[in-house]
Amino acid sequence: MKLIDSHCHVHFNAYRDDMDDVIRRTLDKGVFMITVGTQKDTSAAGLKVAEEYEGLWATVGLHPNHTVEQTFWDNDELAPEEQATPKIKTRSEDFDYDFYKQLASHPKCVGIGETGLDWYRIPEDADLEQVKEKQHRIVRAQFDLATEMNLPVVIHCRDAYEEQADLVKEYLDAGKLPAGGVVHCFTGTKEEAMRFVALGFYISFSGIVTFPARSKERNKDGLSPLQEAAQAVPLDHLLVETDSPYLTPEPHRGERNEPWHVVRVAEKIAELRGIPLQEVVDHTVVNTRKVFNI
Ligand SMILES: [Zn+2]
Ligand SMILES: [Zn+2]
């Protein structure tokens, strides 16, 4: 085994026609996977797929984008006919603690999430305070479940790193979240990353780290703030992921992402840090095994 994609959605609709091929292709290349749930259907489905393969595990949880009615579609996630009614607002799911607890007791369930605060994708007509309050409530419920089940949390956070870190700290200070967690698809700054590291959390980088810095955010070495973060996070707190089918790394941008592309993320981090690829591979594999207890 060479690498672990610590966060993908290989059971989503984007792979409906060739999921088995994609998983086997990935395993053949020596890449293990953790496939992540985002609401009831995808959480249950991920476990079913994980049952079928060695080297594939799943997490269950309710993504913040699924906690509010939205007009954006994601046909990569569920087929149009599985969505409530195409072209109108998505369902908003509330967190059903007992339902997820049942799923979480599955032997192939290795974490709770993705869950977190996302202030980026909020519908324009929504009451902002109400949306934030609901997201907070639902994240707390999942942190409680992770505590009860002694599982790590997979945090999805956008434009809310400070509040997210405050919430993690509150739980840790109360002796909760004993298994810690991961901030997945990190897109913040070095300072924001180090705050989670100080709390004992892992930082997972996706293909975004391979994207060239935009001109206005470039530092003197031509790097983005995210790439600076990828240089700064200690090797023993570093994870890599694809978030497939999204966020295809360079040089494959524009194609559907597949979990074995995770090697591109590891290569980029090795290049940024000026260390051998193998060092990034070894550390991220050890870290992923440790946090997900696999
Ligand atoms: Zn996410
Ligand atoms: Zn994801």
- Rg, please? 18 Å
* CATH topology annotation: TIM Barrel
- H/E series, N to C? EHEHEHEHEHEHEHEHH
Shape: globular
**Helical residues, percent:** 25-40%
In the predicted model, the low-confidence regions spanning at least 5 consecutive residues are 84-89
Going by CATH, the homologous superfamily would be: Metal-dependent hydrolases
Characterise the protein shown here.
Strand 1 (3-8), helix 1 (19-28) and strand 2 (31-36) form a beta-alpha-beta unit. The chain has 294 residues and is α/β, with parallel strands linked by helices. The protein has nine helices and eight strands. It has an eight-stranded parallel sheet. Residues 84-89 have low confidence and may be disordered. The longest helix has 22 residues, at 128-149. 47% of the residues are buried. Bound molecules: zinc ion (ZN) (2 copies). One zinc ion binds at residues 114, 156, 184-185.
Give the key terms.
eight-stranded parallel β-sheet, 38% helix, globular, 294 residues, binds zinc ion, alpha/beta, single chain, TIM Barrel
Topology (elements, then pairings):
Layout: E1 3-8, H1 19-28, E2 31-36, H2 40-52, E3 56-60, H3 97-104, E4 109-115, H4 128-149, E5 153-155, H5 161-173, E6 181-183, H6 190-198, E7 202-205, H7 225-232, E8 238-240, H8 262-273, H9 277-292
Parallel strand pairs: 1-2, 2-3, 3-4, 4-5, 5-6, 6-7, 7-8
Helix pairs in contact: 3-4, 6-7, 8-9
The structure holds zinc ion (2 copies).
One zinc ion is lined by residues 114, 156, 184-185.
GO molecular function, one term: hydrolase activity, acting on ester bonds
Keywords: Hydrolase, Metal-binding
Pfam families: TatD_DNase
